[in-house]
Amino acid sequence: MWDIIIIGGGPAGLTAGIYAARARLDTVLLEKLAPGGQMITTLGVENFPGFPEGITGPELMGNFAKQAKRLGLQIETAEVTQITPEETRIQVATREKGDFYSHAVIIATGARPQKLGVPGEKEFLAKGVSYCATCDGPLFRDVEVAVIGGGDTALEEGVFLTRFASKVHIIHRRDQLRGEKILQERALANAKVHFILETVVEEIRGEEVVKSIKLRNVKTDEKSELEVKAVFVLVGTVPNTEFLKGLINLDEAGYIIVNERYQTNIPAIYAAGDVHDKVYRQAVTAAGSGCAAALEAAKFVEETKA
Ligand code: NAP
Known about the structure:
Blueprint lengths: L1 E6 L3 H12 L4 E5 L25 H14 L3 E4 L2 E6 L4 E5 L3 E10 L3 E3 L15 E2 L2 H4 L7 E5 L3 H10 L5 E5 L9 H8 L4 E4 L2 E8 L3 E8 L5 E5 L2 E4 L3 E3 L29 E3 L11 H23 L1
Parallel strand pairs: 1-2, 1-6, 2-3, 6-17, 8-15, 9-10, 9-15, 10-11
Antiparallel strand pairs: 4-5, 5-6, 7-16, 12-13, 13-14
Bound molecules: NADP nicotinamide-adenine-dinucleotide phosphate.
């Protein structure tokens, strides 16, 4: 029987772990992969306060995990398949390590890359189609690649890819980019970056590996084909909440609905980070909500035990 079970080991989950451990509550964090979450795939973090020279995502998350463990957080590698509230405790079932029980649960399962949903995307996964430039970028040296999306991720990763690729085509569906001004300026100033705006991908084509993409201009309806060796799909994220359906109230996009105390519709279950936040989605805001959720959950546990 644990005081608090935290599900997910990104910035929100690990920060919740730091606060719960410091509150001297018996806390376990369940993470299906290695701790770090989406930050693992980010090379240059320039906007996490406290690191004036910047830091890599894996390094920053390594520090979070080290600090949480030093304070007493237990971290287990296990995928949660179901949460079942019982009369006086909550059962958390995992695929690998059986059932865990606690007074309170903090869900911090984050989000995963959104798919385009076009023909060829599935077929050429890991054969040119990628959702992580940091991971797969170095595989595509001196060739032309495409980045789909107009947000911070597309701009940042697009510029990162110019370290390897001969040309990076950033393809965005609107005429305005969504990403931060500083990232737009950096991309526009890079001679290897070529923007194709008001254009969508209709198909990813190839044989063994990706060879080209079929494009359509949304204004003129003109179709074209662009030869590229890789397609980096960086069009946002979807929350990891499938295992909660029917138990936790979710909005129409699948994000967890919480009150101002980070509490879900079940009083003993809290949520933090990208799994409930579709607006800010920053490591620092995820960490902040992880802290708040842990403080609230700690209060709940103390009151329940009393
Ligand atoms: P995002 O901000 O949601 O942007 C997604 C982009 O993909 C948008 O430009 C969107 O177009 C486009 N898009 C969505 N669905 C599409 C589809 N089906 N087909 C074609 N295009 C599609 O996602 P993100 O860039 O991954 O960023 C996520 C969050 O992480 C944001 O809050 C961002 O600020 C943050 N982030 C921050 C940094 C940083 O601070 N350095 C770096 C990376 C990410 P529309 O513009 O038309 O909607």
